[in-house]
Specification:
The structure holds three protein chains of three kinds.
Chain A lengths: L2 H17 L8 E7 L6 H18 L2 E2 L2 E9 L5 H15 L3 E4 L3 H14 L3 E3 L14 E3 L4 H14 L4 E7 L2 H16 L3 E8 L7 H9 L4 E5 L4 H12 L8 E5 L5 H7 L7 E4 L8 H14 L7 H19 L6 H8 L3 E4 L2 E5 L6 E13 L2 E13 L5
Parallel strand pairs in A: 1-3, 1-4, 4-5, 5-6, 7-8, 7-9, 9-10, 10-11
Antiparallel strand pairs in A: 2-3, 11-14, 12-13, 13-14, 14-15
Chain B lengths: L13 H16 L4 H23 L8 H16 L5 H23 L4 H21 L1 H4 L24 H22 L2 H11 L3 H4 L4 H27 L9 H14 L6 H16 L4 H18 L3 H17 L1
Chain C lengths: L4 H29 L6 H17 L5 H22 L9 H23 L15 E4 L2 E4 H23 L1 H11 L1 H6 L4 H27 L5 H4 L1 H11 L4 H21 L5 H14 L4 H5 L1
Antiparallel strand pairs in C: 1-2
Helix pairs in contact in C: 1-5, 1-6, 1-8, 1-10, 1-11, 2-3, 2-8, 3-8, 5-6, 6-8, 10-11, 11-12
Classes of the chains: A alpha/beta, B mainly alpha, C mainly alpha.
Amino acid sequence: MNVPRIAFAFALAATLIAARGAPAAEPLKIGVIAEFSGPFAGYGKQMHNGIKAFIRQHGDTVAGRKVEIILKDTTGPAPEVAKRLAQDLVTQDKVDFLAGFGLTPNALAVAPLATQAKTPMIVMNAASSVITTRSPYVARLSMTLPQVTAPMAQWAAKNGIRRVYSIVSDYAPGIDAETTFAKTFQAQGGEVVGSVRVPLKNPDFAPFVQRAKDARPQAVFIFVPAGEQGIAFVKAFTERGLREAGIKLIGSGDVVDDDVLEAMGDATLGVITTHHYSAAHDSPENAAFKKAYAEANGTGSRPNFMAVAGYDGMAAIYAVAKKLDGKIDADQAMAALKGLALQSPRGPIHIDPETRDIVQTVYVRKVERTKAGLYNVEFDRFADVKDPGK
Amino acid sequence: MSAAGRVPDARWRPAELVFWAAAVAVYFVFPHHLVLASQILITGLFALSLDLILGYAGIVSLGHAAMFGSGAYAAGLLAHHGWGEPVSGLLAGGAAGAALAFATSFVALRGGDLTRLMVTLGIGLMAYEVANQAASITGGVDGLSDVAMGKLLGLFAFDLGGRTAYVYSLAVLFAVFCLSRRIVNSPFGLSLRGIRDRSARMPALGAPVSLRLTAVYTVAGGIAGIAGALLAQTTQFVGLETLGFSRSADLLIMLVLGGAGWLYGGMVGAAAFLVAQDLLSGMNPVYWQFWLGLLLVLAVFFVPGGIVGTLAGAQLRRLEARR
Amino acid sequence: MPGSLPGVLFDGVAYGSLLFLISVGLSVTMGLMNFINLAHGAFAMAGGYVCAVAMNRLGIPFVATLPLAFLAGAVAGGILESLLYRRLYRRSPLDQVLFSLGLTLMSVAAATWVFGPGSQPVHLPDFLLGQVRVAGVDLGAYRLFLVAVVSLIALALIASLRMTKAGARIRASVDDAQAAAGLGIDVGRVFALTFTLGSALSALGGALSIDVFGLDPTFPLKYLVYFLLVVVVGGSGSIAGSLLASMVLGVLDVVGKYYVPQIGAFVIYGLMIALLLLSPGGLRRMAR
């Protein structure tokens, strides 16, 4: 037996093993399922912009793992497509997190899959209360409609508005908004003098606005999906002379979405809405967010509430990854998410440990012309609002 | 006129056997794409039902999704309320589709092509509104979720990889296809083609036109309902867009691109359409819509029989050239 | 509520006027060439975008953009008719549906690519904003303008059809193209002229409708049902029929939405089915 040779072989082997270095960590994969084309293309775009802003600000590595974002386009309300995309992400790409979800039906279709595949699902926009109840692996970072609508009713009642006419789009979120508003407003002693549900594919608001005018309310409460319907409605409201008749326009912030507010023009001045984020929110976090947003996406667009949800969704994912030291186990991730508190660009937020839904401040804002253009300027707030729908 | 290809021949051609063998092979060759594959099969079944009324009976419909959606909701609601047995749900879906088709046939089949187009379009749009209004039952825009399916035949659970769904869909498609084949090759099927080609002559021959049209419309509605039920069961979800206009319009496009009147055109068209959409939507999705439109325009000018029609035509010419 | 009936009726008439302007071209095209053109809304959209671009990027005043939109529609219609539509007149209705559907998809995609998926804003000149008090009723100034413009155009159309030689040729070709050709009428040229005019009118209607209907790339598909409705209910090939149908549909739709909003969307589809069943040839029969 030649001891020196065997010893040399061992030493060589040991050196080679040590020189290989630590094994490279698997990237942290996040599958983002959202709308990037079709009529809801703005939703996915804003969410993605928010995600990019976060990565720009905080880097693309967390807990030693490089973050990889995989985008999948649902093209619109297409639950079977969303489910198929989620299935591909989970079985083939083996993502650590599912995220995005601009529309409720798509989120609802994917939720059972999150349970079956034990993958945490971060909802960044879809706003129906019921979504977080469909799977124990869902956490929401955006908002729910009842959560932002109830404060509007409370504010109106507190500020001398007794008679309101309600106009909403005739689909589940609209009916949610109408019911929540009426319930809260009437509980505060107000009267809903009339209400109408407008068909979703509606070319012309004029007859509905005329009806509202004839009922002589003090204010009209409006909910329509963010974007072109808001534009059409405000136009009809102005054209019919309701403002001259002294009727205020109140509603949820969707109708004066930051993304389209500038294009809607001066017809929106004075509109009072409640929402959880305004691009004009005055805080250091929001200033940093807007700066990172402009750096990551150019100055062509303004961040809106969907971008902020994308940003905060990433913040939550990074927080969980750091807490679990990069080893994402679904049950531990959900435990880490429950009760997680963040200082978001919108204000302070936290995830309710019972419902896994978001708890946040809802602001009352008015549209004003500032030096930088038309903005929703906050002037009142309701802190720590939970989703009343549960 | 040559006999080959004109008089319906119930024998199975070699090309057909290749087609079905390929469908079975997909299970083994593309094990990671079975979810997309089963959706192709379901859409193919839906297109088959449109082929029966459009390709064989000449009824132009822009609202066929109403039957598809009613089948989806029937099966979905059954499962949602606790009855998760798949095959009975499937039959319930078929019954719902057939019932809706029968009820609307009195309105939809009157008048000429344009009137039928408008009325079927209107019926489809109304069905969408009804489902939207009845949100407490259907879930409205949010959709019907919590559709819990039991095991297929008591043995096979619907798995994450989509394997059970694929085999289920393929079996149903094949069964319904064989049934359709029998129908179109029967005297009834021949009379349908007579109605499609020269509607004034058929009554002269003693064939009751409207009765036959109603019959085929109802059967096609039932098949569409079965396809809808399959979708509801394999995705465990029913969305409002199962009744939507774009589903009807896309279906028409798929059928015509594949070739109407051959029974296989719908399935081929669905496969081509969905695969292309899946591949191309990774690129800029606006391009997809543009190229699809361009493809349609070019197809109308250069490939009027659709894929299957052109292939069959080439086959015919080759056979005739041999004589 | 009853006191507002005149106002609501007027709204319906304004709505109907827009429908008429956009759909009249389709009606005559379908009556004349028996061509089911689902892409008709694309011409309206093109006119709308010409108006929006001219106003927003070139600073041209709104009223001056209207003749531009008209011209744009005429040019587009003329080119497409001679290159494409002409070859499909004898094809089956299904082929025509598919061709025009393909054209529509292409136009929607092109508009999305060039202008983005959002709505185009249009800022009307001040004299068209607000309301005007007429006989004790508040009427929208813009809607008054609409009704005035469309009435003039409708009168001009009907008059020229009845009183000019070109109009006589068109009427002859609509009634029986073969016989008209036999009489020496150049039916091909009649087709081309009519299609061009129809597209031009549609483009003008599109520009005028931005304020009422909104303008975004999905315009041709969104309002397709309404245009087809007018044609089918009014009877293809008849201007008077289209006018009557547009008014009936416009008024009933608006009145329905005002007084019975719960029924909302059903009104228009239910109406269509009822009218089709009652009078399969359309209101043209009734107008005569």
